Amino acid sequence: MFLIYSIVYTFAFILFLPRFLFDAIFKGKYAAGFKQRLGFLPTFDSKGKKVVWLHCVSVGETNAARPLAIKIKDDFPDLAIVVSTTTRSGQQLAQTAFADIADLVFYFPFDWKFSVHRALKHIKPSVVLLMETEIWPNFIRESYHSGAQLCIVNGRLSERSFNRYSKIRKFVKRVLGYLDMALMQENADATRLMSLGIRASKVRVTGNVKFDHDLHENEAALTDKMLERFGISSEAPLIIAASTHSPEEKWILEAFKEIKKSADANLSRLMIVPRHPERFDEVAELAKKTGFTLVRRSSTESSGDRSAEIILLDSIGELRAMYPLAEIVFVGGSLIPHGGQSIFEPAAAGKAIITGSHTANFDAAVKEFLDIGALIQLPHLADKDIVTKLAEAIEDLLTNSEKRTELGSNALAVMNSNRGAVTKTIEYLQPVLDQNIVRKKHYG
Questions:
Q1: How far is Cα 62 from Cα 171, in angstroms, rounded to an integer?
Q2: Distance (Å, rounded) from C-alpha 371 to C-alpha 166?
Q3: What sign has the CA pseudo-torsion 380, 383, 389, 393?
Q4: Cβ 231 vs Cβ 267: under 8 Å
Q5: What is the DSSP secondary structure assignment for residue 41, as one 8-state letter?
Q6: What is the DSSP secondary-structure string of 194-212?
Q7: Helix axes 169-176, 137-146, angle to 10 degrees
Q8: Distance CA 288, CA 293 (A)
Q9: For residue 174, with 0-12 CB atoms within 10 Å meaning exposed, 13-18 middle and 19 or more buried, which class applies?
Q10: Nearest-angstrom CA–CA distance, 291 and 17
Q11: What gap in Å lies between CA 429 and CA 127, rounded to an integer?
Q12: Long-range contacts for 229-235 (Cβ within 8 Å, ≥24 apart)?
């Protein structure tokens, strides 16, 4: 079955190869780290320490992994930590977020046996931690045979992913059998994973480490810097449209036009933060067509920064530092069938949050937020109604400071009441991180 998987994976890669080549020419995201993805990693010296390999996929997992990595570094100073990511945006963030924690940050290898083997032989991990249920069959099997302990941390398995894996249940069961432990966010996640065949004795529920988010010292300094540069003030309340996807930017810009017609909200400003960096220029062009004044974070500072009606945050890893500046946060990926982006970071900043109806990626959290009035979620809407309803929701909050405050306070309360996932995760990982004996076979 692994052979069939590798063949299918290779055919998929070949089909995608033109996109890799195109991006190699134009330095796009898919070509980034290509050599590393083949297993040719930068020089690494563990200095005799046992190595923990922490794998994140993209920006969300990288942000979530930081408090866990800090805790491991503090509690287990004799371990070396290396971090891998899959996406370019995740890599750019990880290079900054883990600069003071990780001994190496690199791209995760393609899931061929040869590339995985090469990476494992180079890193020689004693422990591999996979954030949020990244199931790469060849990597998991080869990690097991290398002698590493394998654990899923902050695991999440949506109903959609479960249904997809269920179609190859026998194969997935075999892959999951190589895991030593699966630390899942919710009971539902644990149940789904066990239904795929992992032994119940290997599964634990820890909660979501994203609830343990705190603003880092460096992020607080950036918040102050951006406050000064863009002249953010309560007199001109800032709306952040966070982690947006196409066509959400178009809708949020049209909603902003409607909001600006109101005498009570016409001083408001909008910060747009596209989810994918390759869309920064596209969104900038959309914003220019509105007739509003626009400034880009990446541009040289100018006097127009303090008065621009629209700010485009075209940078990686700075969104969390922007949340304290906002009055209202719309969380993207939720007006389209994407599943929604994270609500945890704006909640940790105590902000009034609005989402669309498509939040399957965070079902349990969204339900908890809604139950105590910590979130406004728009109903499922036809495309033609989205702009009107979004504008109404934002304008209602702009003109009702008490409601904004209540929503923000409730959101922060949810975050505080759910803290502790990092501590629980470390408690379960401690025997794995402490042990000095690895499996007999190890790549040399």
A1: 28
A2: 31
A3: positive
A4: no
A5: P
A6: HHTT--GGGEEE---GGGG
A7: 30
A8: 7
A9: middle
A10: 40
A11: 10
A12: 229/301, 229/305, 229/306, 230/295, 230/305, 230/306, 230/308, 230/311, 230/325, 231/305, 231/306, 231/307, 232/269, 232/325, 234/327, 235/267
Q: What is the pLDDT of residues 233-252, one digit of tens each?
A: 999 999 999 999 999 999 99
Residues of the chain predicted below pLDDT 50: 436-444
Distance CA 352, CA 338 (A): 22
Using DSSP's 3-state secondary structure scheme, residue 94 falls into: helix
d(CA 150, CA 175): 11
Strand partners, 150: 128
Picking from 104, 107, 24, 23, the residue whose alpha carbon sits closest to that of residue 58 is 107
Contact, 157 vs 187, CB < 8 A?
no
Query: pLDDT tens digits for 101-130?
Result: 999 999 999 999 999 999 999 999 999 999
Q: Are 223 and 254 in contact (CB under 8 A)?
A: no
- Phi then psi for residue 210, to 5 deg, are -65, -20
